[in-house]
Specification:
Elements lengths: L1 H28 L2 E7 L17 H8 L4 E2 L6 E12 L5 E12 L5 E8 L22 H8 L8
Antiparallel strand pairs: 1-3, 2-3, 3-4, 4-5
Length: 155
């Protein structure tokens, strides 16, 4: 009788330990995690870049390589940084985003400096449409019949 009571108590204690461990794992999984991506703009000295005076080489020494550059128009370097938060299995959410733009003139000297934040960001829906390609559409039977005479015989 004493052993049964003792084993029931041990079983109850074991269940409590497992439940507490599960509860602890569940609670810690819901903690928000922060992640910084891209260019960390808080540690950069953007004040040292002066329009009309600073050259490309000086910008690289002060700020480092840009995150991206413009493809057309005035030559512009983009320094992009963002802070994201993620909770458990949910999608990450952008909390803070800064984009610094450094535009150069034809001589490679800074023309202007700009800043954009998350307020300037626009979400763009990706189109599910496809672009048709030109040429013949070949079906499975045509592919099979077209390949019949293309095999080399064993030598």
């Amino acid at each position: 009788m004493y052993h049964r009571k003792k084993s029931k108590e041990l079983l109850l204690i074991g269940r409590c330990i497992v439940f507490c461990a599960f509860l602890l794992c569940f609670i810690t999984a819901c903690v928000k995690t922060e992640e910084t991506r891209g260019y960390v703009t808080e540690f950069s000295d953007f004040n040292s870049v002066e329009p009309g005076k600073t050259t490309k080489e000086e910008v690289i020494k002060a700020l480092g390589s840009p995150s991206s550059t413009s493809s057309f128009g005035d030559e512009t370097w983009y320094y992009i940084g963002m802070k994201m938060e993620k909770t458990a299995f949910l999608d990450p959410e952008i909390v803070k985003q800064n984009i610094f733009l450094v535009t150069f003139d034809d001589k490679g000297i800074v023309k202007e400096i700009g800043k954009k934040s998350e307020k300037d960001r626009r979400d763009i829906d990706i189109s599910k449409e496809t672009t048709p390609t030109e040429g013949n559409k070949v079906g499975v039977v045509e592919q099979f019949l077209g390949n019949l005479g293309r095999f080399n015989p064993k030598e």
